[in-house]
From TrEMBL:
Lineage: Eukaryota, Metazoa, Ecdysozoa, Arthropoda, Hexapoda
Keywords annotated in UniProt: Nucleus, Repeat, Ribonucleoprotein, WD repeat
GO cellular component, as recorded: small-subunit processome
Protein name per UniProt: DDB1- and CUL4-associated factor 13
Localization (cell): Nucleus, Nucleolus
């Protein structure tokens, strides 16, 4: 008896049935490339449309926090609560903000004169501020009664302090002024004082990964590294111009970026300080502050040229530039811990909130919307190096004073390059050596 073969059509209902009656009908799709000869031109048109729409929807400014009666001098992020921000001003006032409703929840006069720096403790229960009145004051994060408006603890210093940073886990914090000082919560005198023959230090920052390592920027154009466990400083690198601020990469223990007076930012590796790993250009005036994103892949910088720029840590040019007509010179910038927003303080008394990605939609995305966005992103990535797509994606509108300054800087660089080329052409071979860009800005390294 011969066997009978029966072929059965087997279909998965998920391929052709709608989830609800309001959903669109699903159509079968054959992915064989030979059946789609016009796929590449069609995807190119879609990539062009996607990159144009990205520029159309690029509206990064969200809102501002106003209330300060003098320029904003410093910002402090709460380590556990995304919606809480503390800010200090040039008149000695500190304000605590609720970012969800964009309102000030507390304000008090903390110091006589300028609030130099703020930092929260790792638990987030208190924050510490330093000012021009030579005091270090610790405050409760939440004031439940009028008594809580008084400082929990006040420490007196011999000199004015210009920076403060807290250890990630231990009850230790470091301040900088004439020297770098290490303090414990329970003691009135510094535990350690680090000296390396400089007039003054103006910024200090603890490493978030190698928690005993800290770095400071000095007035003699140097960047100095310290270890809490050592009795003296470790290493020092002197640059051509002064560094204003420093930020450690929260993901890579040895990487830090400094904001410099020569309009650039420099990313260094602690293990090789002879030259920077990368130079980030774009600003047209002194860079005042820098802060890393929690991912460690990007950082934000604020400058005296009245713009905020966002850089990718491995690239030399900024991926975005934010500005408004009213925003004046930047004094401080922070990247929020949820990697979605940027906060900037400027000397015209406003704190501004920006989106970290200018064209990102805020709020909940529906599944189909998310799929469409992911498809657009992959198309933009696929055609990223095509001239038209690249031009549209890269273009940014900047104010006229920035455009003119950029032209001037470009002219100066071309002039110097031409001059060096002429000197080399008319000199004995080897007398005018080629110096790489990354080695030009370092004067010396000490250990």
């Amino acid at each position: 008896m011969s066997k009978l073969k029966i072929k059965v059509i087997s279909r998965n209902p998920d391929d052709y049935l709608r989830a609800t009656k309001r959903d669109i009908h699903k159509l079968p799709r054959n992915y064989d490339p030979s059946l789609h000869p016009l796929e590449a031109p069609r995807e190119y048109v879609r990539a062009m449309n996607a990159v144009k729409l990205e520029r159309v929807f690029a509206k990064p400014f969200i809102g501002n926090l106003d209330g300060h009666r003098d320029g904003v001098s410093s910002l402090g992020k709460h380590p556990n609560r995304l919606a809480v921000l503390a800010s200090g001003a040039f008149d000695g006032e500190i304000r605590v903000w609720d970012l969800t409703i964009r309102k000030c929840t507390r304000n008090f006069i903390a110091h006589e004169g300028w609030v130099r720096a703020l930092c929260y403790t790792p638990s987030g229960e208190t924050f510490t501020s330093v000012g021009d009145d030579k005091t270090i004051k610790t405050w409760k994060s939440e004031a439940l009664s009028p008594e809580d408006e008084e400082p929990v603890n006040t420490l007196l210093s011999m000199s004015v302090m210009s920076g403060i940073t807290h250890h990630r886990t231990k009850p230790l914090f470091a301040t900088c002024g004439e020297h770098c000082q290490l303090w414990e919560k329970t003691r009135n005198e510094p535990v350690k004082v680090f000296k390396w023959g400089v007039d003054s230090l103006h910024h200090v920052s603890f490493n978030q990964v190698e928690q005993n390592l800290l770095a400071s920027c000095a007035s003699d154009r140097s960047i100095i590294l310290y270890d809490c466990r050592e009795s003296g400083p470790l290493r020092k690198v002197v640059m051509e111009l002064r560094s204003n601020a420093l930020s450690w990469n929260p993901m890579e223990a040895f990487i830090f970026t400094v904001a410099n007076e020569d309009y650039n930012l420099y990313t260094f590796d602690v293990r090789k300080l002879k030259q920077p790993v990368n130079i980030h250009m774009g600003h047209t005036s002194a860079v005042i502050d820098v802060d890393y994103a929690p991912t460690g892949r990007e950082f934000v910088a604020g400058s005296y040229d009245k713009t905020v720029r966002i850089f990718e840590s491995l690239k030399g040019n900024s991926r975005d530039v934010y500005h408004t007509k009213r925003m004046q010179r930047l004094t401080c910038v922070k990247w929020t811990l949820d990697n979605k927003y940027i906060l900037s303080g400027s000397d015209e008394m406003n704190i501004r909130m920006w989106k970290a990605r200018a064209s990102e939609k805020l709020g909940v995305l529906k599944p189909r919307e998310r799929t469409a966005l992911n498809y657009s992103e992959s198309l933009k990535e696929k055609f990223a190096n095509h001239p038209q797509v690249k031009r549209i994606a890269r273009h940014r509108h900047v104010p006229k004073h920035i455009l003119n300054a950029q032209k001037e800087i470009r002219t100066i660089k071309e002039k110097n390059k031409r001059k060096e080329g002429n000197r080399r052409a008319h000199s004995k071979p080897g007398t005018v050596p080629f110096v790489p860009e990354r080695q030009r800005h370092i004067v010396k390294e000490d250990e």
